[in-house]
Please model this.
Amino acid sequence: MTIILNDAEVIDQIFNHIDGKTTDLADKTWQEPIENYKSEERFKAEIALLKRLPVPYCPSASLPENGTYVARTAAGTPLIAVRGDDGIVRAFYNSCRHRGMAVAEGSGSARTFVCPYHSWAYGLDGQLKHVPGADGFPDLDYEKHGLVQVHAEERSGLIFVTQEDPISEGALEALPDFFNPDQVAFDKIEFNDNANWKLLAETSMEGYHIKALHNKTFYPYGLDNINIVETFGPNSRIVFPFRRIEKLRDIPRDERRLSGMVTDVFQLFPNTHISVLSDHSLLIILEPVSPTETRWEIFRLNNRMKGGKEIDLEKAKRDASFVTDTGLGEDRHAARSIQAGMAGKANEFFTFGKFEKAAIHFHEVMDEMLTKLPKG
Ligand code: FES
Ligand SMILES: [Fe+2]
Model:
């Protein structure tokens, strides 16, 4: 069960907003204390929460065949996810059981993981298979020295990982399918920003800044402050319509399709969002490094179809470069500027207005989840 509106329903609501000069609104405003962006203690609690929630780790499409793996740091912890010979994705702490070096970096395809330090070798199921000079470890129990597994689950076209005991059951129910098996994860880009991860996350949660911040990049194509905002569980969906959606007014309601007419953004609580654009999609994971630094991990995929036609992979790649080189840069700049300003005493809290409904939902859920964290 999902509460995601279908294409025709979203388009109806967008036309209502355009005609009525309105947009979706929260039922209240929100004040978020600056301290929640600055405090070390709060940061630690957020990392603890990230370890206990099922958090997207990579798209299924990044693990297309048995033996393909993705190694990356999630919630400050190096992990590796790999599709086993049985087709099942497993995730492990990426730390060798000899003296702890990472057994793989980046992504690729492997039959075994051989630690670069002294060549202990592990199977795709994490089992320790080979120790060079095994007579140096007379009492070694191979069974007990496999890679240590964390919980991984594949659904909705994503791999979710939970590192520690989950804080709530059923968190993954009611998710729609975000990606189809025929989409290609064509690359991954990574970079760091000197900004708290929530400042960066907030830039994708509202369309109130399209005209001001993205005046020459997105605004020529997109509408300012006209959005559909749906919440589902801790998550939300924000639809950003392009001006060309007007073309759909002449098409019978049941034949109207959103693809190519909007940027469809799914906020997966807390640190992930999926942007479905015209020709490509982005899985964006914001990895908190410290209260003042964040690492972006962006998986880029092609969309297969638009208006009943196949999209060429090269076109998807060009489209992806435009978005990450222009509009995303403006969002990053805004977040870094806010971060810098927090050194002063201008604001004790930031105010989110009714247009910023998804951001309010995010902060509200965050407060609620943090109170459920086990103490200590
Ligand atoms: S640390 Fe991995 S083999 Fe020694
Ligand atoms: Fe933006």
